[in-house]
Amino acid sequence: xxxxxxxxxxxxxxxxxxxxxxxxxxxxxxxxxxxxxxxxxxxxxxxxxxxxxxxxxxxxxxxxxxxxxxxxxxx
Length: 75
Hints:
By secondary structure, the chain is an alpha+beta fold. It has one helix spanning 34-45, and strands at residues 2-8, 15-18, 26-29, 51-56, 62-68. The protein has a 5-stranded mixed sheet with strand order 3-2-1-4-5, covered by helices on one side. A hairpin with a 7-residue loop joins strand 2 (15-18) and strand 3 (26-29). The radius of gyration is 12 Å and the shape is globular.
């Protein structure tokens, strides 16, 4: 299972998508719909695996949790 975290940046310039399964460990989103784009990327990147995506607020509290079941299964 892949676990992703969407956290606001300390410099207040967007959000970071973080996970151990990402090739570079972290992606930075700064546009208006940054959180939904980060969630969309995490769902797309883990389309063959089960995934949990947690969105955090500035205080470090989980405000949203998304669970995604992998679309591709072995025959």
